[in-house]
């Protein structure tokens, strides 16, 4: 019954919250360095507690890749006061849900509860930060979980290397750790000793390396007191994570690569570019460009390659702006026998049009409407607001960008679109990848 009422409340909240415009919040720091963000929204009796740690795949050392993602799983094993295997049971028994995710730049954990269970969420996340149990049985268990995840999402999933960029970023980045995959190497994880996992936790899972967000149906002063009680006494085991910037050399000549996928029958042709970091306005312009070229059945590439020329079954694009750099990947699933030169020429023709001709006013207005809808939808759930506030604060240094993003999109002009296409989407700035069915030949390994 608790779950049913919670689901109903969440459904009602989505409708109420989706009309909101400005996200009001308060932020401050505890004495131990924990950054706290509070967002009060009393439209429905739910609350999200999220903690984002400044540790991602780019913080791993060579030979020990996959640690950040591994900890996303490991830190659900249990703590001194939460028995092994009981984390999810506690959340469920209190009518909540929880999850976690890892990127190149950060790791994020959250719980969403009925608002009268806020204290449980704060207690659980303080437990995770204060004294998780890291022991061999947990490492061995989660090692198998991560291996299975890799098999399902990448090794045995059609186009997994494209979707998760494990067969793309390694060709783009030669110096920067973005060239490594988030899921990492199973060999590295197998070789790691227990004390290495303990050291990783001590290095990164500290208050001075984290942002706590509490969003939803809260009383601010009561919440502050609980946060102080649960998180204030936690001491740091290491200095805050200070990253040294790694500068990637720009691509100045076209790079060529071939990737193989035993799970597909239809090959693909891929263009991939290094683009600006997330705080840069050009990253937002590239979102527009991605939508114009490959954003659904009305996009230019789809109309040209699928509907008109009938040389592709589908087009694809991934525009991802991260803390240090972004990537823009576009391509097509090929129909019939591949004519690589013709496919390449067609894709380049559509890019060239964007570089030499302003998009129409009608297409421009459609873009703005699409992105306004997308922005509202992204912040229509309290979980989305919590994640956005933490992300903007940690990775862009300004939580208030949650209220500026739509203005940034609306400030983009048709001339900006043309200029950014000319600045980043040139043949000498990209990797071209033939994505083929089958296994990698022995001679290529």
Automatic annotation (TrEMBL):
Belongs to the peptidase M16 family. This is Insulinase family protein. Keywords: Hydrolase, Metalloprotease, Protease, Signal, Zinc. Residues 1-22 form the signal peptide. SUPFAM superfamilies: LuxS/MPP-like metallohydrolase. It comes from the Bacteria. It comes from Winogradskyella vincentii. Residues 194-370 form the Peptidase M16 C-terminal domain. InterPro entries: Metalloenz_LuxS/M16 (IPR011249), Pept_M16_N (IPR011765), Peptidase_M16 (IPR050626), Peptidase_M16_C (IPR007863). Residues 36-184 form the Peptidase M16 N-terminal domain. The keyword Nucleus does not apply.
